[in-house]
Amino acid sequence: MYHIDLTELPQLTNDTFYPLYNNDNRYLVLMGGGGSGKSVFAAQKIIYRVLTEDNHKILVVRKVAKTSRQSTFSLLRAIINSWGLSELFSTNKTEMEITCKNGNQIIHAGLDDVEKLKSIQGVTSIWIEEASELLPEDFRQLDIRLRGQTKNYKQIILTFNPVSITHWLKKEFFDTKKPKAVVSKTTYKDNKFLPKEDIEVLEGFKESDPYYYQVYCLGQWGVTGKTIFNSQKVSIRIHQLANQKPLSRGYFIYSYENEKIVDKSIRFIPDETGYITIHEDVKENYPYVIGGDTAGEGSDYFAGQVLDNTTGKQVAILHHQFDEDLYTKQMYCLGKHYNMALIGIETNYSTYPTMELSRLGYYKQYNREVPDTFTGKLQKKYGFHTTKLTRPVIISNGVEIVREATHILNDIKTLEEMLTFVRNEQGRAEAQEGSHDDLIMSWLIAQHIREQQTFNVSEVPIKPPEKLLDKLGMTKNKKSFKTI
Question: How far apart are the C-alpha atoms of 131 and 151, rounded to whole Å?
């Protein structure tokens, strides 16, 4: 076993990564933008362990074996040479194997060579470079192959650049806290060894390609495929909101007497695990609208979006797996809380919520015109119905709003759904497989029904100037608010 002068490691390693030399978690996840130095550190740590620990066979993997030669294999050799350790290692260039004089090995393989992988026994640790190239089942197979006999800790290092926000890596390691996993997110700003000219190139993307800068330079989750909404502006907005916390989170409680909700009993209970997120509390004498989406085909969530109708800004979101009756009661309370908001719930899969709201006495609902089956005369019915005619209209309106006024979106989950809302092969706008569009549809409905909201201007605490009234398409009396 060989010893490295530990006093030199801080000078050889980026400050962000230095504490990770001693990290012994099973999963060490290194995600970062271009130039962050994550792959260099992974190689440094492997060499350090090979020199200072016994009985190692460390496997370095990429999706395609031949891509390792000019990446991980070359990088490991370069670090060995730069550290002045060449005499301690022998290299088999054909098999891409590196052997230390103490008997420890670093071997390479690709997931495209299944037979070679099967023949490798006694693996004590694994480095997966460009882990985003792997399928989840690839990762599972590697995980179970980490069973070599060693007194040292076993670890899988995953290095990758940011990928689609729907990628399994995000769900596996970032959306929830996976046991025995440590996550490190870095950018070129964390790399003290990056040449000045490389920094200038990366920072040049701030102006020339802001989306590329956010995703590939700053290491933000990106998007693949052709999205319906402007992915660049959505991603930037997500980044802007990343460190902002909502005003509150919780749910409503109420008394229920004679099959009705007692309005005076309605209370919002703060709870970090609650399904209602408040971004902006109710303002006295302001008009609000609420769009709703029920758990129909391809969905198992109920959703509600509350908008300030003077601006269209998101102020609250409801998102949960409910029974229909509980969902309707929470929507009732939400509407009452936000100044008797206009509520429009989609009726494609169920008319129960609109009917139940009526039974509960909530009549300020969106009305659509429907031809009578027998007479052909138009009649009004509660709720929004999504059709081949209405769906493109509300989506088109939403696309325009995102393009021109992304700042009115305050909910990261809604924005993340927008990054997975794409055109399929038939050209239809829909959520990618495995994703949802509940929050998108409820938001689109809320934006659409704004014109039907009425509000008495005399109730506004501060009288709006005439120019604002004109912009809103209002007189001094009761009128409809229009989308702005």
Answer: 27
List, in sequence order, the alpha helices (H) in 184-316: 196-208, 210-212, 231-241
Inside any domain, residue 219: no
Give pLDDT, residue 482.
38
Report the alpha-carbon distance of residue 162 to residue 220 in Å, rounded.
6
Q: Tell me, what CATH number does 373's domain have?
A: 3.30.420.240
285 and 349 fall within a common domain: yes
- Cα atoms in the 13 Å half-sphere on the side-chain side of 388: 1
Angle ∠(466,467,473) on CA atoms, nearest 5: 90
pTM of the model: 0.62
User: How large is the average pLDDT for residues 305-321?
Assistant: 96
> Where are any strands of DSSP class E within 161-312?
181-186, 248-257, 260-270, 276-278, 288-293, 302-308
Distances (CA, A) of 200 to 22, 186, 203, 207, 313: 33, 18, 5, 12, 37
Say if residue 379's pLDDT is above 80.
no
**How far apart (Å, rounded) are the C-alpha atoms in residues 120 and 114?**
10
pLDDT tens digit sequence for 76-133? 999 999 998 999 999 999 999 999 999 999 999 999 877 777 788 889 999 999 999 9
Mean pLDDT, residues 234-256: 93
For residue 252, the enclosing domain spans 248-480
**pLDDT range class, residue 372, cuts 50, 70, 90:** low
How distant, in Å, are the alpha carbons of 3, 225, 395 from that of 228? 56, 10, 9
